[in-house]
Automatic annotation (TrEMBL):
GO biological process, one term: proteolysis
Record flagged with keyword Metal-binding: no
Matching InterPro entries: Rce1/LyrA-like_dom (IPR003675)
Entry protein name: CPBP family intramembrane metalloprotease
Keywords from the named record: Hydrolase, Membrane, Metalloprotease, Protease, Transmembrane, Transmembrane helix
Transmembrane segments: 39-57, 69-91
Chain ranges of the CAAX prenyl protease 2/Lysostaphin resistance protein A-like domain: 117-204
MF terms in GO: endopeptidase activity; metallopeptidase activity
């Protein structure tokens, strides 16, 4: 089987681009500029996709009617929030890192409302383009198995958070929404819907995140 170097490069960017940018730019994860640099990842991926001759549909850009779009966004958001509520007692029982996650979210949320909207929108757009729009769709086309492709991309997304910014227990909390979002994408195969669901979930989370306590240094955190 002939290996497409553009595909290999695109997958490498999708899976490692967010981490790589933090090394290249030596970023402070709580700075808005740090989140602005995340747009470099989808920019590179779109350039790679154009070189491959891919169309927007090949990257999951399927919208449908405005009413269907809004309905799916509403359902997706309810499913995502509902899953978090239902699983929260389980994570609490096994020590699922809620304190670490809340501390990280509080530090991310230590900005203006406009900053929170920007951070949430950036995370939802850039991460969905990378992991679902490019990686999942390309792996699904390569393997012929969207579920297998989704398993790979969801795993890569979760492992990408395992660093000094998030503790292993906090990553456990991050894993379940990643699985839910991937499942929703596999069901609808609509990138705009999942961008909206992801961004809305992050924005709401940041708006209602607890405030940073001055007497306790919260661990540095970043969505990716």
């Amino acid at each position: 089987m002939q290996i497409d170097p553009l595909l290999v490069g695109g997958l490498a960017v999708a899976f490692t681009g967010f981490k790589l940018r933090t090394v290249v730019f030596d970023l402070d994860a709580t700075d808005v500029w740090s989140h602005a640099t995340k747009w470099l990842v989808p920019a590179v991926l779109l350039a790679v996709a154009a070189a491959q001759g891919l169309t927007p549909v090949d990257l999951g850009w399927r919208v449908g009617s405005p009413l269907r779009f809004l309905g799916r966004v509403a359902v997706g958001f309810v499913v995502l929030v509902g899953a978090s509520i239902l699983l929260s007692p389980v994570f609490d029982r096994i020590g699922g890192g809620n304190e670490d996650l809340e501390a990280g979210m509080a530090e991310l949320a230590d900005t203006t409302l406009a900053g929170k909207v920007f951070i949430g929108t950036t995370a939802g757009t850039t991460e969905e383009v990378a992991f679902n729009g490019y990686a999942l769709e390309r792996l699904a086309a390569l393997t012929g198995s969207p579920p297998l492709a989704g398993t790979v991309t969801a795993t890569a997304f979760v492992l990408g958070h395992w660093s000094d910014q998030w503790s292993p227990s906090a990553v456990l909390r991050i894993a379940h929404p990643a699985v839910v979002v991937t499942g929703l994408y596999l069901y609808w195969r609509s990138l705009p819907v999942l961008i909206a669901v992801h961004a809305l979930n992050d924005i709401v989370g940041l708006v209602f995140a607890p405030e940073v306590e001055d007497d306790a240094a919260a661990p540095s955190a970043a969505t990716q």
